[in-house]
Write a structure and sequence with these properties.
The structure holds two protein chains of two kinds. Chain A is mostly helical. Chain A has ten helices and no strands. Chain B has helices spanning about 45-60, 80-90, 105-110, 125-135, 140-150, 170-180, 200-205, 210-225, 290, 295-300, 315, 320-330, 335-340; strands at about 5, 10-15, 60-65, 65-70, 90-95, 115-120, 155-165, 185-190, 230, 250, 265, 270, 280. The chains are: A mainly alpha, B alpha/beta.
Amino acid sequence: MSLTRREFMKLFGVSVASMLLTRCSGFAPATPEQTCYAPIAPTDLPPTLSSTPAMERLRLNWLRFGELSQKTIAGENSDNALGQQMTADHRAALDELVALGELSASVADLIQESYGAAVYHVWRSNAPITCYEPRIVDYAPSSADVLVKQSEVLNQIAAQGTIDPATLAGAQSALEHDLAFYDLSDEEVKALYDRLIRESQVGGQPIPSFEALELELTPEAKDAAHFILDLLTGK
Amino acid sequence: MSAKPHLQSLIFEVTQRCNHTCLHCYNVWQGEPSSTPIYYPHGELDTTQTLHLLAKALEETDCHHVTLTGGEPLLRADLSILLDFLRERNVQSTIISNGRLLNKQTAISLIDHGVALFELPLLSHQREIHDRLSAAPGAWDSVLAAMTRIRLHHGQVITAFVATRVNIGHLYETIKLAFAFGARAIMFNRFNPGGRGRTYLHELLPSIEQVREALTVAESASVEFGIPISCSIPIQPCLIDTSTFPHLGFGYCAAGSERAYYTLDPLGNVRPCNHSTTILGNLFEESFGNLVSSEKLKGFVNAFPAKCKVCKQRATCQGGCKAAGQVCYGSLDAIEPFLRQEQYVRL
């Protein structure tokens, strides 16, 4: 699979956003604890954000996907004004780093490309749907709470005896599969993601594995990807 | 045209054939001739021509998402070829299906071929009601089995509940069933007469009060199950105060905008949306840009019932679904069937 570096950075950003939303404990601040899709109180940008160092502002922007997701689900971001604001904030922080000589302009552009794609992905995936609007979907089960509730409801429905037993067994199996996902450690989740990405690639899905892509990466794209990872892991 | 039209999505009706005969079907080529007989071209292209058509559509637009619908799209033997074609161009695909043909092998194959989302109908928690509305015995069992298979293989499903007089009272239990089977979202679509549905207008069209009560149910169910519910078919704010349902999404006619559901039929005809019989032109004969900047489209976009002229919400609501007015009463300016009930109701 041959991807341009821009395409790669977009996919990379989307993958990072998905990881942050699905298993964000590794990246999120210690308190308050964020869960993937469970409602959390929207966290506005700190009023002193503009005075924080550019690097920290960048990091905070990458940690706002939960907020973007929640506000979008709640219908408070139908025009994605929040996403546009986040993208502009991110660009401004990058420009500052470029001006300080800490980042080259070309790498900054790629990072921005990645972030913009991630913001769009999170917004589009959560915006209230209309008939035929696209929803970019990846394998990310609903929150554990939702799955537990699904299980309860499914059991109630099963007790009514109206559904074909084979179908019911399949539904329970699918649910258990998703529930098992939430019993995994961070490392196991990462391994699962890696495996799914590999399988997707084998199956011809348009999501490439990081390893496969790295072979084709330009140094700039590699720098941009590492910059984002370092930013989020606090290195 | 200098810039390519940007489309959030393109609707592609890959076939007019279907294995169900839903009473509420809005397909514009369906329905018995009535007081407003409508002729619509029938047929479909072979694989080579279809790929040629799709390539032209994608080349002439900035579009990264295509919804494959019908008829029943799974009846096309070359569906996987069309999907591969889209995937090679980094175009996301959604399939709207009745689920009948989604056996295990097909579900896996479609997911492998890049289908990101399946939209399936779930019309009731009761087998007999779903089957009756689908006019297809076994439809309910098939769709539940299809949902299960898709989820088992990491696909995503949203379900569509077409609210008719027959099933609207089943909304809560149906949402509950969809939730239990892993639906990621639910579309609450009030019955919008068109196609075959025109024949059953009076039997199926829910009253304003019924829709209001259903929205109350949907609102609380959305909170209870944490599931997004959107109302894609316009519900006029003058009939029902939609602001009292903060957890529901409400959509209005997007014709002419980036969010428009431009619809490409199996022969290459382009329409402003899939409910309308208005053909802007054929893509083999004209460019997409020319078709969507035509006077015909402007006429569609600017149409609204005369009675709505003084309404402050006209720009958003546009009188509801003008396509329904068109197919039921012969004019885009006609008051569509749901709004016609207003004379019996005062907010």
